[in-house]
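Dear colleagues,

As part of the handover before I leave the project, I'm documenting each prediction I ran so the next person doesn't have to rerun anything. This entry is a single chain, and its sequence is reproduced below.
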Amino acid sequence: MTTATISQGNLTPQDVLEQAASLRLRVGDFHEKLVESNYAEAADIADSVVTRPERPAHGLSLDQRIDRLVTSRLWGFPLMILLFAIVFWITISGANIPSSMLMNVLIGRIYPLLHVGADAIHLPWWLSGLLIDGMYLATAWVISVMLPPMAIFFPLFTLLEDFGYLPRVAFNLDNVFRKSGAHGKQALSMMMGFGCNAAAMVSTRVIDSPRERLIAMITNNFALCNGRWPTQILIATLFIGSLVPAYLAGIVSALAVVGIAMLGVLLTFAVSWALSRTLLQGEVSTFSLELPPYRPPRVWQTIYTSIIDRTLFVLWRAVVFALPAGAVIWLVSNIQIGGESIAAYFINWLNPLGLLIGLNGVILLAYVVAIPANEIVIPTILMLTVLTTGISGMGAGAGVMFEANSPAGAMAIFQAGGWTLLTGVNLMLFSLIHNPCSTTIYTMYTESGSRKWTAVAALLPLAMGFVVTFMVAQAWRLGAMIFG
């Protein structure tokens, strides 16, 4: 491109801008190289004028001693996995009792009273079904399943952040991201994704390179968001923890959840590597990361702010989406065409694909209904299973999931729906990999301004979810045939 060709009218100003944006997408950001050279020059000047006496190892500060351990090549990653395993174990073990208590109150006690009240005022069956069996039950299950683990997990995660550990995680992962063709700051947006993928999309603004920012946005879905933690915890507890004695169930379930989370990190590296060598080729840029000093966590303030800013905020968002979702579920399960409900038609249509990938039609329909929010996946699955199987004589007309007022009751519903260990494992995998929620997709579009890359961010994980679950299902069935 030359000035002559522009002046001749061969290129419009818009063409020049588009070409400049395309070139910037492929090269590293000059600002980062300038910052790197400035830091190097400052270090050279400091080394030339500052005398630093040699200090023995025991003379290191406490921060330096901790950093030698948590950022070491030998112990950094094992300690990171151990810390998150402890957080998940505390979450799983601590959430079971309050979750069961909430289920017993909201579903075991309040639910029958609502029906008694509806009968007393002679509410029409369809209206009581819509309000109580649909909207109320979906909301009650969201609160029972989500509130206890979030009230434990978010404060613990925030304490690690407040202590200063999460920047060390970014430091440990920087080299791996660089080898994957991505930006080191993607570690920060990935950690944000463990809270909310939509917020993590916004946090990628710290990455100056447009190419590397797109990689970070497209792969952020592989970080388990808060809406998917309850699904992972419940399924791991029911299907993985039940394989071992009760005293080992908590730790085994926690390790299963950690394994899924680590798989998400590995997929982030793999997809970043593939994108940086195909659709988003370009030069890898560098960045400087200043590790903050360790600080004693402000425990009570952290607990308060994490509950108010994260737990209750996310719970309210889940409730807002659960109310209309519950109404939709009840309607499609009770409106009949030709003697069969609308839900049954969709489930029968999706069943062949679902069984092929180790799931079923109920699960796939639940994920369609739950596109607005991942938090309502499990309540949707439970309600659809009860409504379409007629457990304990509760047919589609009854529209209830009363038996799900305990983990054992939920397991009974899953088993009545034909679930096996393969179903539970593949649900955990599909929950990790499938398409982002609608909020994340919309945020991706507003941040990137591109329909093309938004479609890639939405459809690539979905396609990968189908491929991974299909491969696992076929390998599982082949192994069952070989080993009996």
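The longest strand covers residues 336-337. The first helix runs from residue 3 to 7.

All the best with the project,
I.
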